[in-house]
Amino acid sequence: MTDDSGHGTLWAGITALYGEPGVAEACLVAQDEAGADVLLLLAAALMARRGVSLDGAGPALAAAVEPWRSEVVRPLRALRRRWRGLDGVEPLRERLKALELEAERAQFERLAPRLAGSPAEPGARLLRENLAAVEPMLSAGSLDALAAALARGWRPAPGG
After folding, report:
1. Best exposed site among 36, 95, 131, 157 by fewest CB in 10 Å?
2. Among residues 99, 93, 96, 157, which one has the least CA distance to residue 123?
3. Neighbours of 11 (CB within 10 A)
4. DSSP string spanning 57-112?
């Protein structure tokens, strides 16, 4: 999907970030241990790479995606996870996984127009601040581990 709003560039940056070594694992730990929204974490990290502070924006960002997340994304994920290891269901799990990704993309489309903030110096401090802004319930240890994983291979953000 391409669009003229820049959302396609942001989505490409988020998917590339998720594919970096250790990032998926760290995000999933935060999701499983603290109920963190992986998409919000990745968006916060990408905005930090672009030098955009999300200070104060976390609650509005979470509120913008929560209905979709709770009604669509979470139920798809829960079903996919429940089916893990069941005989003969793997092809259906893969289709469900594809639907979950589509649902996350739709969630991102709701989030993208709200990803604005004030200019800030890109770096580890901004990364940690942005992560804490979007997921304030993360423990200090989880936040540190996540920030460390997201900071590996730091480089300018795509389109940033």
Report:
1. 95
2. 157
3. 20
4. THHHHHHHHHHHIIIIIHHHHHHHHHTTT-TT-HHHHHHHHHHHHHHHHHHHHHHG
Burial degree of 156 (CB within 10 A; 0-12, 13-18, 19+) = exposed
Which residue reads 């979007």 in tokens? Answer: 134
Write out pLDDT tens, residues 52-67.
Answer: 999 999 999 999 999 9
Spatial CA neighbour of 68 closest among 42, 95, 102: 102
HSE, CB side, 13 Å, CA atoms: give it for residue 45: 29
pLDDT in tens, 57-105: 999 999 999 999 999 999 999 999 999 999 999 999 999 999 999 999 9
